[in-house]
Each structure stands twice: as C-alpha cells, then as structure tokens.
Prior knowledge:
This protein is of the alpha/beta class. The protein folds into two domains: 25-96; 109-301, Ribonuclease Inhibitor (Leucine-rich repeat, LRR (right-handed beta-alpha superhelix), Alpha-Beta Horseshoe). Helix content is 20%, strand content 15%.
Amino acid sequence: xxxxxxxxxxxxxxxxxxxxxxxxxxxTVSFGKLTVPADAESIDLGKVxxxxxxxxxxxxxxAQLPNLKHVDMYSTKIPRKRIEQLAERFPEVEFGxxxxxxxxxxxxxxxxxxxxxxxxxxxxxxxxxxxxxxxxNLVALDIGHNAVNDLSFLNDLxxxxxxxxxxxxxxxITPVASLTGLEYLELFYNDIRDxxxxxxxxxxxxxxxxxxxxxxxxxxxSMTWLERLWVPQYNSHNPTKKPDPEAVQRLRDxxxxxxxxxxxxxxxGNGWRDHPRYTVMREIFKTNSWIPLDGEENPEP
Length: 301
C-alpha cells in the first residue's frame, strides 16, 4: 500500500512539474512545447499544432490562464467546428485565426477581403461567409460573383465602409441597413425588389443598383447625400426593358447634386469605374489596409 501511495505522489509531482514552474520563477502553464506564465494576457502558439484529439487538452490549457485576452493561432490549421467551440468557451478572448472561406483564406485581423471572382469562378454560398463574423477589423468586403441568397451574416460586420455584392442571388437587402458607415456600395445584377432599407445609409457616396428587379425606386429620392447613383435597368435584367423615364426624372429632381446614370449598357458602363474613389478602393483590397476614400476621414454624421 505504501508503494502505491508513493507512486501516486510521484505522479502528482510530475504533473505539477509539467504545468507549473518553481515559486521562484513564477507559475507557468504548458501545452506541448509551449510554456507560458500563468498570468499571461497574450500568447502565440507559433507552429504548435493542435490535433483533433488534442483539443480537450488545449481547452484545459487555456482555462488555466485567467488573464488571457489574446491568442495568436494564425499558423495553426483549425477547422470551423473548433473555431466555433473556442469562441463559445472563451468569449472574452480575442483569437487570431486564419480561416477558410470556400477556396480562400482570411485572417481575423484582415482589414479587407475579396474573393476576386469573375463570372466563371466557382461560387460560394452563405455558409461559406459565416466565419467573417470573427473579422472584427473588416472595413472592405468584395463577395461579388457568388451564390449568396441571404445577407444576414452582414449584421456581424458593422464597421464596413466598402461593400461589393454584385451578381449574387439575393432579394432582401434589409441587413445592409445596419451598415450605416458604408460609403461605397455595388448591388448590381441581383434580384432586389425593395430598396426601402437603403436611406439608412447616411454616409453612402457611391451606389450602383443597375440590373435588378426593383419595382419602386422612389425611396432613393431621399438620399440627397449621394454623389453618384447608377440605375441602368434597375427594374429588369432584360436589355429591352428600359427604366421608367418618369421615375428617373423624379430621381434627378430630388437629387440635383447627384451624378445619375440610367443609360449605361453594362453595370459599370458610362464611367462608373472612372473615379478616384474606385482607384483608392482597389488599393485597399491590394494592400489590406484602410485608406480614406476621399483622402481624409469623414466627420461623424
């Protein structure tokens, strides 16, 4: 019996050695080859891998760090299921992840993200973009030419200033109304019927609604702050069905300071992309850094 107790005590001492340093050096906690102070606020996993069977141990490791605020896991391959589990178990911790979106990757500290798709690209669906809710710094998003039919995931991205949703499959744009910081918005080639949500976007400067199925364009008449408005074939994808000339004239009367185009033969025709803000926008996606579209930040509305 004595030998059994000695063995048990030896095992306990070994565990304590693995997870805690001496009192002189301060307590430490270990996971694999990584050892950090028990009072650490930020840790970097580096190349430390976490396998499927190792996640319970990893969760226990994090639970022993009461002051933890940030975990860098950018170099760790992690499935979506584990991302959701970590976010739920440790809501006060900011995790740095490299996440998969379709056949793309995006870091949680990204400022911009674009699938860079064309008409011939493989199309991603709503669920592929759901992980973007962990990208708290995202201000520019381009998911054009995909198969999105539900925009509810946008409710988790309140800091967006640039949004490109061209050529998808959605009708309801209500979630866009929550993005009151938007300055640039492309919605052409979708199935939009109702635009009554858009007047909530009080910082918007550039709006392209071409090639949709909008029955009533009149809500846009209140958006006197717009600088550019493209509405070619806003009511149809059929090139023979032209916009209602009276409705377009009412837009012109209501928005005398807005450059309005209703005759372009393509969604970006008649100079939509020939504007300095478009050039700045492309640079934002290229450099993954925020550049004010007009050279300086806008004042609060």
